[in-house]
Amino acid sequence: MTSGNKYASEAKEAIDSHSDSLRELSLQIHGRPELGYCEEFAHQVLTDYLEAKGFKVTRQAYDITTAFVAEYESPAAIAAAASGTKVKTVGFCSEYDALPDIGHACGHNLIAIAGVAAALGVKAVLEKHNLEGRVRLVGTPAEETTGGKIPLIEKGAFDGMDACMMTHPAPADIVYATILSVEGVIVEYFGKASHASASPWEGINALDAMVTAYNGIGLLRQQTAPTSRVHCIITCGGQAANIIPEYAAGKILYRATNTADHKKIHDNVLRILNAAAESTGCTVTITKEMEFQPVPHNELLAARYAQYTTELGVKYLPRAVQEAAPSGSTDMGNVAHYVPGIHPVYNLSSLDSIIDPTLSNHSTEFTAKAKTDVAHLATLRSAKGLALTGLDVLLEDGFAEAVRVEFEHNVPKSGVSSLKQMQSALAAVSNRGCGCH
User: Fold this and answer.
1) What is the pTM of this model?
2) Looking at the structure, do residues 387 and 288 belong to the same domain, yes or no?
3) Is 130 found in the same domain as 146?
4) Domain that holds residue 230
5) End position of a domain, from candidates 267, 292, 317
6) Distance between CA 415 and CA 367 in Å, rounded?
7) Domain of life here (predicted)?
8) Do residues 106 and 99 lie in contact, with contact meaning Cβ atoms separated by under 8 Å?
């Protein structure tokens, strides 16, 4: 029996004891959706709640207005640290930003309370038995846009963690989701305005450049690996129909499963954007807006989480099928490249692991599902899996060290190593996968 398992029932009971207040917290956040870096209400109610539960809370953490850190360390941990002994730390993440117009269509109200619940479960055990250990919950804004975890990494929010974990609602239960890298760029074309009827030959059409780029990206998809993605929108196409547009702009996102594929699609996109400028006589500015890394799964953490959630009633498909499910991207990938981590997803619409093929993240239907009783219970079940895994990190002899060795060995090779295996597995799954950014 592992040290974490010894206290499993206490951690689960602690999470269940807070179910009603966590449900209320989730519904409050769901009812007041806020965009990235504007999550003032969510920041307030989450930090108030955590402070009331006995956590040491830092609001507006690291000079980020809607970020926070909530931490608990036992008296034994405080004494050990004071004597110079390294105290193990397990971390969890809460997200709470929404999407424009459709609100919590990615279920971040649930992700918010999942992190809180996991931290509560670990805290209850450490506190009751005065065990050496520290739990840190990081409130991370703006996952849907530029990624609030990235500046938090740079500012030290994840320093000293032996592991950091989070969970995400989806239409299916998946431990080994292939969560892609994503890079976003803004492209701006500059031409010369002129009268579109009287003297169009005097103008340089920036919209022509943007349309050329858009079409080039569309053609690029034919030569893009089926595990990679590229999307583009035109955000500005001119000022008036009777003026040759002197300015046009767009946003492009491209994704891949590994570093080599990411670089290939990045280079191809940039060639297209620059060629569109040259072919139309425009000048171009390309600005990187954000970059999320793929999520490398720590095998030991993932196996423990899968074990605990299976014992709680989750039924998982074979790993190859899980890995082949279509997916989005998340800044948790950057965290899991910094410290050992996992980012499982769980089925918010069924406690029996029944996949709804009509449901997908970033839809109004998902927004509605994110406030149901079933979604709440599924969230707490996943949070229990995180909490029990976190306790193993803190309390099981040698486990945190083994997790670190696995991390050091495998993270440089993150991503899907076998394209052939991925292609063969793609046919085995629904076209509805997990969705993040």
Assistant:
1) 0.88
2) no
3) yes
4) 181-292
5) 292
6) 30
7) Eukaryota
8) yes
